[in-house]
Amino acid sequence: MNNGAPSPVRTFKKTLFKSPQGSAQTFAFLGGALETWERFTEEFAAGGLIASSSAEERELAAMPTTNDANEGMLGMWRRHSRDKPSLTVGHFSNQAAFARNETQDFMNALFIDEDHAHIRKEARRIDTSGIEKHRRDAVIQYKKTVAEENHKKEAERHAKKTSVAEYFSALEIVVDNALLNTMLDQLIKDQLELHRRLGEEKTIPKKTHLSSKHARLQVLLLVVERYKARRRGESLDDEVNFLNLINS
């Protein structure tokens, strides 16, 4: 199908050799794929299992195109609902069952005029019962409820994020070692997070990597010393491993 967009193959060929390893990687990939395709298609080769089997054997070996009957049916519904937006789930289900169960052959063999009249009457009753309208209303209400819940959760996340940001913006960085050594554990955590948010230290360990108050305090003392050194105009190495320093 040509919708005016550039051919993916032509675009791929143009960009293939722009990368130093582009051609080598592509050839390696295609070579590996070829080996797999050859293995997958052995049974289709001339003189292979399929070609040499009888019609009866092929009929016995027939199997669904997917490993889940619902997978194929759901795919059919998706395609039909796109091509025919007014098609209801009930109509689609009835048409699919009609075709799959070979109902037409059954009707041709056994139905009389009264049966056809009854089927038409029942179909009109179902169409006028409002079943599909109730189903669509339920789907719309469900989607509306989900959207409202997602909006509420997003608002709660935003409010929490804003509250946390306001909390840390009101904190001051403590540089007095004596005061740091007397801090409660939660205040030590807050000071470390304040330095993380400041962004000067890129390698402050994650919270999960600092399992004790002692480890958190030792890292904080090192961070504060580096913070003060920067204020004195000293040049520091950005790639520092605080865990190694406190464990050495």
Layout: helices, strands, pairs:
Layout: H1 8-16, H2 22-40, H3 49-52, H4 55-61, H5 69-83, H6 89-100, H7 103-110, H8 113-128, H9 131-169, H10 177-181, H11 185-198, H12 213-231, H13 242-247
Cα-based radius of gyration, to the nearest Å = 35 Å
Anisotropy-based shape: elongated
Number of helices: 13
Indicate the low-confidence ranges by residue numbers.
none
Percent of sequence in beta strands: under 5%
Q: What is the tally of beta strands? A: 0
- How far apart lie the N and C ends? 66 Å
Structural class: mainly alpha
List descriptors.
248 residues, mainly alpha, 0% strand
Describe the structure.
The chain is an all-alpha fold. It has 13 helices and no strands. It has helices spanning 8-16, 22-40, 49-52, 55-61, 69-83, 89-100, 103-110, 113-128, 131-169, 177-181, 185-198, 213-231, 242-247. Helix 11 (185-198) packs across helix 12. The mean pLDDT is 85.
